[in-house]
Give the backbone structure.
Amino acid sequence: MAEQRIDSSTDTLVLEKESLIKLYTSSNRLLTDSFRLISAHLQDKPEQSLLFLTNLPDSLSALEVSQIYRQRWQIEKFFRFIKQQMNFSHFLSRSFNGIKIMAYVMLIGAMLIGLYGRFNDRPGFKINKLLFVYELEADLVKTLIVACHGEPTLLDDALKKHFGQ
């Protein structure tokens, strides 16, 4: 297949053509494997072209390759979200169970912040995260003040009574 026109599209993408190409290394050596190059453009922005380079087999159509790339992009966006918005930059545990618990806690936190924003009719995530943490902290301080009857020296006794230590 040198170059083949494609007559296929998705709800957001128009697939145009597919080519079989060879690539060179940085030292100008020709690679033995061939790659598929799929050209497409967005439905609403024909001037913006997209290129998909893959070594996936010919048994997958260009449409299927584009759908795989779309799913992959959703995964990338999710990881960017948890790293940037949820400050999930490194694992605190190396065990499978520890990582699973951290992921659950992070996802529950993200859902609580999302619900907080929806409940307060406020779009976005960053400001909702800041306000959620601020209000949670304020409620915690109020609860501690009530638990020690307004006397900070009684806080240790109230915590021991409540948590049984």
